[in-house]
Design brief:
heterodimer; A: alpha+beta; Ubiquitin-like (UB roll); DNA polymerase, domain 1; 2 domains; 5-stranded mixed β-sheet; 5 strands; B: alpha+beta; Aldehyde Oxidoreductase, domain 4; 7-stranded mixed β-sheet; 6-stranded mixed β-sheet; 29 strands; globular
Chain lengths: 154, 719
């Protein structure tokens, strides 16, 4: 029996085993390749999506556990051609090099700011700790998250 | 950039060049250009000298390479500019910096320019993207073809208007006649034309001091595609009917397959198992099924006994056997007389430094999508050497190279780790068996195990110093880690530098900077030790032994930015510095560490970097700062652990990479030398960090850390 996933506001009926991991369903069944495979072990954060607004590692989440819940991927952040403020901040600061980590970084930051709109520096560092950037762009990513947070204050 | 750099480059290539290079002949004919591209203007860069720099390496029997094209450019009838280069983008931001240089000479907006990169059908042969060579070699080549195209356009306009060239200027994608107040776009000028020009390597290039596009903080090309998840890496590519591949890995290195039962796996719907020699792989309709099927294959392997980490630093000192494929011919440098030098020394010092095996850990693992059609093979893969991978594929499948096309989508980083085409070969083998396109993405565990590593090594330094701080003897022996950066910025009167290759215990290869970070580590920690032995302040001691003005300039700039000497080290806070040069650029790093029990926290890093004229200060700042962050890992805690042919920590949970909590305050000073040609910047900025940190820890604690990583489990107990 097909399962129903609610991704970026759209319902998708998919026919996969319920223990399949969400990341592969997003990428292979729904063609949403913005979420990346980095480790498959929840250690790098490249696959981060929002589940009911909370960041989760889609490489670890079974589809059976997320049925009917609101899933947001990087593709779902843009609204009518307008980038999300976190995307804008990443673009402005150029908070990427190879950018393979960028989707996951942005989704984690969006999750942080939804829960904590005015995070302290330490809260940003702690929250982003699970996201790996191998190019070492951490200082700019940190700056981008701060910028997006202060944009939200206005 | 003298012969040493070229020697290093060839060495680096040889390190990975297991297959003989197929002769390259640029096969596109004049007619083909325009069939492919429509009308317009094509300018090709074909200078033999430049082409050799770019990698059209001399071969034993076919040396002249009269048609060795290194780069080319097309201006279409709509004015759009397409530039073709065999270089690849993997986060180092050359798509942007090269575009800027084209815009500079062609006098056309950045957004009218598109680069086709790393496509073996469309782009000229290129040895590969490594060795910090894009900026010093491909940059000038693209500027050359762009300048020639601009001059052609001026000629065309002069002919059309029957006026002299002198009143015409190229600007903003147009040729304008200032006197007659008229202008015409590049597109209109090239409309209906089929112009081809082959140029040499000496058009007049604008001096960096005159740059308008180059030298500015141009945003990354296609940046929006990266923040929206739309950019397609190799791992994102989908082909019609595509299957997903998996490879069965042996339980240890150098294993051979004894038996294999795949009947259970083949019962799963749509699964095909391929067995070819020691290779066992499979394809399935989705990666979930592929993963399940892999677990159902029962294989027996025989794994030979092999060396372990416990004996690593004895093993690396064993001389290479003749059968070894270790790069041969150590680059020995010597000057003066060591014997006389040591005799003249007031004090001598002998120490050994070691570096562990580390993994590149690119966040996008090795991956490939392979597709066969009518006996021809197309492979998308993230590699630094698309033409070498093409040749590997052609050889493996007994195809002429023109039947193999390798395309490199902008890639999720490499750091020297993606020279080989392993995933491409495996995906192509699977696709051939399946008769359908196949995508293969290595797991993180495969990345940590079956890729190659930054070589481990031991370095012995023996030196003599006079009481006034002059170093009079310097003997430097590198075992296995490599010959790059042996020399450093100092000119010691009496020295001997040697590299001793060995039969590497693990599969090893290039890593950002090759052996230069290891050699800088040994040299700059040893310099610190000598400074203390001589009782001279470390900055002063270095300056005393340093005549190269560029090295002195970065050292002084870093010290100034850092506030060197303003505060004394204490048992809980230490300050250290180091300096270096490599591949035509210079770096100096000052670091502050905080000691908290056995924990070492890096609080602050100030780094000065100079690579000639800066092409893109924004991208360069990102590279330098990124090198510092990445360098923290190899300096402090990254190490591959192995035992008897097995990697013991092939997971990110067990192999610690730098994270946000490791981030120090980073201050980058870029010294922009408009009077010097631009050099590359991908590697050198990582080189002085580890020794600066070691020296800072010593300044605080009196403990000398001579092994990388320095504090995988915190400071040694004895402290």
């Amino acid at each position: 029996m097909p399962l129903t996933l609610l991704v970026n506001g759209v319902e998708h009926a998919i026919d996969v085993p319920s223990n399949q991991k969400l990341l592969y369903v997003l990428r292979e069944n729904l063609g949403l390749t913005g979420s990346k495979y980095g480790c498959g072990e929840g250690q790098c954060g490249a696959c981060t999506v929002l589940l009911e607004g909370k960041p989760v590692r889609s490489c670890l989440a079974s589809v059976g556990a997320v049925l009917g819940k609101k899933i947001t991927t990087i593709e779902g952040l843009e609204r009518g051609g307008e980038l999300h403020p976190v995307q804008e901040a990443f673009l402005k600061v150029e908070a990427f090099q190879c950018a393979y980590c960028t989707s996951g970084m942005i989704m984690s930051a969006v999750g942080l700011l939804q829960k904590t709109p005015h995070p302290s520096d330490q809260q940003i560092l702690d929250f982003m700790e699970g996201n790996v950037c191998r190019c070492g762009t951490h200082p700019r990513i940190f700056e981008a998250v701060r910028m997006a947070a202060s944009a939200g204050k206005g | 950039m003298g012969s040493q750099t070229n020697l290093d480059l060839l060495r680096e290539e040889r390190q990975h060049d297991a297959v003989p290079r197929v002769k390259y002949g640029f096969e596109l004919q004049r007619r083909d250009f325009f069939k492919l591209l429509g009308g317009g203007m094509v300018v090709l860069c074909a200078s033999t000298a430049v082409a050799q720099e770019s990698g059209a390496r001399r071969h034993d029997d076919d040396d002249q390479l009269p048609q060795a094209i290194s780069a080319w450019l097309h201006i279409a009838e709509d004015g759009s500019v397409t530039v073709y280069t065999g270089k690849v983008e993997m986060g180092q931001n050359i798509r942007t910096s090269l575009t800027q240089q084209v815009a500079e000479e062609l006098c056309t907006p950045i957004d009218s320019i598109h680069l086709i990169m790393g496509d073996t059908f469309l782009t000229p042969y290129d040895m590969g993207t490594f060795g910090s060579r894009t900026t010093p070699t491909m940059g000038p080549q693209l500027r050359n073809v762009s300048a020639a195209a601009r001059e052609n356009l001026v000629d065309l306009a002069a002919q059309r208007w029957k006026t002299s060239r002198s009143s015409l200027i190229a600007q903003d994608g147009k040729i304008s006649d200032r006197q007659a107040q008229r202008s015409i776009s590049y597109g209109e000028l090239t409309k209906g034309q089929e112009l081809v020009q082959v140029i040499g390597d000496d058009p007049t290039l604008e001096s960096p001091a005159q740059w308008r596009f180059a030298g500015t903080e141009t945003p990354k090309v296609d940046a929006r595609a990266f923040v929206t998840g739309k950019h397609q890496y190799t791992t994102d590519i989908v082909r019609p009917g595509m299957l997903y591949g998996k490879v069965l890995r042996a339980p240890g290195f150098r294993a051979s397959l004894k038996s294999c039962d795949s009947r259970e796996a083949e019962k799963l719907p749509g699964v095909t198992v391929v067995r070819d020699g020691n290779f066992v792989g499979l394809t399935a309709p989705d990666s979930f099924t592929a993963g399940r099927a892999l677990k159902l294959i029962h294989a027996e392997w025989s794994v030979p006994a092999q060396t372990s980490e416990a004996t690593l630093f004895q093993d690396v000192r064993k001389p290479a056997t003749e059968e070894s494929d270790a790069p041969g011919g150590p680059p020995e440098f010597s000057s003066g007389s060591l014997q006389q030098g040591f005799a003249a020394a007031d004090k001598t010092l002998q120490q050994t430094y070691t570096v562990a095996y580390i993994a590149h850990t690119p966040l996008e693992p090795r991956a490939a999508v392979a597709e066969w059609q009518d006996g021809a093979l197309t492979v998308w893969t993230g590699t630094q050497r698309p033409f070498a991978v093409r040749d590997e594929l052609a050889q493996l499948f007994h195809l002429p190279s023109k039947k193999v096309r390798v395309l490199v989508p902008d890639t999720g980083s490499a750091y020297g780790g993606k020279h080989t085409g392993d995933a491409a070969l495996e995906a192509a083998r699977l696709a051939k068996a399946a008769g359908k396109p196949v995508k293969l993405i290595w797991t993180r565990e495969e990345e940590f195990t079956w890729a190659y590593f930054r070589p481990a090594g031991a370095i012995d330094v023996k030196s003599g110093v006079r009481n006034d701080g002059t170093i009079v003897a310097w003997q430097f022996d590198n075992y296995n880690s490599g010959p790059s950066g042996l020399r450093g910025p100092y000119d010691f009167a009496n020295q001997r530098l040697e590299f001793h290759p060995t039969d590497a215990p693990l599969r090893q290869g290039s890593y950002r900077g090759l052996a230069a970070p290891a050699n800088h580590f040994a040299r700059e920690v040893h310099m610190d030790e000598l400074a203390h032995l001589a009782g001279i302040e470390p900055l002063e001691f270095r300056l005393k032994n340093l005549t190269d003005p560029r090295a002195r300039a970065v050292l002084q700039a870093a010290a100034q930015k850092f506030g060197w000497g303003q505060e004394k080290s204490s048992p809980t806070r230490g300050f250290g510095l180091a300096v270096g040069n490599e591949k035509g650029s210079y770096v100096a790093t000052c670091a502050e560490v905080e000691i908290d029990g056995s924990a070492v926290h890096v609080k602050r890093v100030a780094e000065a970097f100079e690579c000639g004229a800066v092409v893109n200060p924004n991208g360069l700042q990102n590279q330098v700062s990124g090198a510092i962050m990445m360098g923290l890992g190899g300096a402090l805690f990254e190490a591959i652990h192995f035992e008897n042919g097995k990697i013991l920590n092939p997971h990110l949970a067990a192999y610690r990479v730098p994270r946000f909590s490791d981030m120090p305050q980073i201050d980058v000073v870029l010294l922009d030398r408009k009077d010097l040609a631009p050099a590359g910047a991908g590697e050198t900025p990582i080189m002085a960090l580890a020794p600066a940190l070691s020296n800072a820890v010593f300044a605080a604690t009196g403990v000398r850390l001579r092994s990388l990583p320095m504090v995988p489990q915190g400071l040694p107990k004895s402290s």
